[in-house]
């Protein structure tokens, strides 16, 4: 997600401003705010106009702290990481924090200004800001104590939660100093801690939310209750572009128990009722005539994913250069043997277990409250204002903790329920909570695009000599942010941006519009392109009679960071061996290896696989991950587990098939996701190389698939170039 | 109809075939039980019916009249439930947490019936889906309860 990487660097480089929240003076608490000025990449505006995200730190008289995080929690552990970082500089133990989501910031929208939780960039972008926030608060508490005791601030030290004057033995709890600290000016440029003195950053601080999430007490958007609300269920047109003409059994539906009203929306019919189940029962009974309507991206009635895949395989068009070195074309023309292959990966749904929902309430003062899952609150606020005919400042977005996201809750026209909830709340004059059933989520999700790449390569005695790749298709960053072909990392990343030294290479994109409404899926372009590239690399190794691990090592001689990471994963796995070999349980197994460079981090993976009744069984995944610097190793390990699960899932079983313009699967019965008994053991080595901090949420995913597929090729002699593996009988 | 949920008897006025899930969420206002798929595939809606892990999204309310229904909100009222929750916290199982109510109840049912489950027992009982992929930590937490 290169656009976000770029943004992350911009934020990290910016000075941080911390200010006191004057309007909260007199509450006995120390309240600090900091702003992350996020500006459009071009056209810098005056600072006063810059959209800002406000992150509040409130230190209360009881010594606990409330932190309003700019980043949303959806399972990745970001609330804990934020508390850890602020707590480190504040010198307050993370367990004394409660963390909430910061509301959309002021001033609001100018074009291009946004924040989001995604791109594996929360920790790396929040890190400098949160440290400054904690450091400023600590300095003010120290100063308050110094003034109270009539001593110099330099004579004071802190221990977690208190200020201490060692000479006199006096101590004061932070909570008792908070009110006095609030009256002090906010210091600028407070010195940060020496990382060597870190107490919590770099440690496995326990998650703050595990107990609530183990006892059913964590609420999500779907659990929101608003006084006087009605519940809504809907059915979308079977394909985008159709819209309801009539509900032919309208009277019957209106007479069903609990039904308040039936509504023809743009591309959908909704039932509003006293209870959700009543609305659901009624919409299921509705008989709807659909007719051609208006849509920005109408789905062709004859669209099929198989047909689209074939059209990408043969597509002609301008090859926009993304990356080039040497003379790939010349080298391939002169090569004795050219290896050619076409790789593809299917549409996949996000499949977050919490179905999408939105609750809308119009207020007497003309404002609109919205409760919903979202990864980019200011963008949703602007879009909601447009949908409601209001100013953004009149829309109050209550972001909710996410029941999984994986890219599902970005702003995707046609994939977010809130415009429909707004329309329904306005129509009925009461608050409305709209829940999409799982079936509607499958129908209107913005899936990871089906992708395809065409490879040509040659190999010599020491490794690949030339590589020519055409990536054919469209990336989500072009669809949603107008990134042109060749400048849309989401369309090529994982094929572009690889680290291996290949003397002659040419990587280009042939743009082909994707008829489906496509979106970001965990690790985005990497989620499929690294599979393609690393698979083809193994094909070149096989053609050259080279060991795939040794060949990769030799291609990394220019980068000690990558070479040592690859060696580290082999060491973790007890040494590299490709197999096939017999395991202790009598099964025949093999290993595959792959690497990826996603979201500012570096990853090497080895997979051990056997074939059982024609299906691949993944026994072990070894992951060496180098995010440069680590805030919480326990979180990193959990995110690697999670990324391995999703990577294994999409490699083994996931595929959203379209026929006749419609997805065939509408729920998890026809679209399996990884089951508990399919989960491999995961062994993780976290390498903190000291390089610039990279992401953690997504990087563990991309190299999993190719490592599995490369092992399958060793076992079966069959080179899989199209996912998922469940399409094949591997017996 | 009358339903016995978390030790109390509730008079509920719903269509007899209303799924137990929606009775629990909408009539009783207990939101710890989650809607995930509605077709008994994911297990986010798992509750205990006479101690048996049951997918409430496909369980008609009138089919469980007279039976003891327990939801995540009272899981810690039994010794096994308490230990399972403690193990979930200790192992930091949860990520997004949406499936974990169901996972905790499935584990509670398993460990109440089979205090020392084999791997096959765990595979057979712990079938709820988790999109965050917490499966290895779930298994570790179940084992830690079994090993006491």
UniProtKB/TrEMBL annotation, chain A:
Coiled-coil annotated spans: none
Aldehyde oxidase/xanthine dehydrogenase a/b hammerhead domain segment(s): 215-294
PROSITE patterns found in the cross-reference section: TAT (PS51318)
SUPFAM superfamilies xrefs: CO dehydrogenase molybdoprotein N-domain-like, Molybdenum cofactor-binding domain
Family matches, as Pfam families: MoCoBD_1, MoCoBD_2
PANTHER family: ALDEHYDE DEHYDROGENASE (PTHR47495)
Official protein name in the record: Molybdopterin-dependent oxidoreductase
Organism of derivation: Pseudodonghicola flavimaris
UniProtKB/TrEMBL annotation, chain B:
Pfam families, per the entry: Fer2, Fer2_2
Residues of the 2Fe-2S ferredoxin-type domain: 1-75
Gene3D superfamilies cross-referenced by the UniProt entry: 3.10.20.30, [2Fe-2S]-binding domain
Organism of derivation: Pseudodonghicola flavimaris
Keywords, alphabetical: 2Fe-2S, Iron, Iron-sulfur, Metal-binding, Oxidoreductase
PANTHER family in the record: BLR6218 PROTEIN (PTHR44379:SF2), OXIDOREDUCTASE WITH IRON-SULFUR SUBUNIT (PTHR44379)
PROSITE patterns for this protein: 2FE2S_FER_1, 2FE2S_FER_2
Keyword Metal-binding found: yes
Protein name: (2Fe-2S)-binding protein
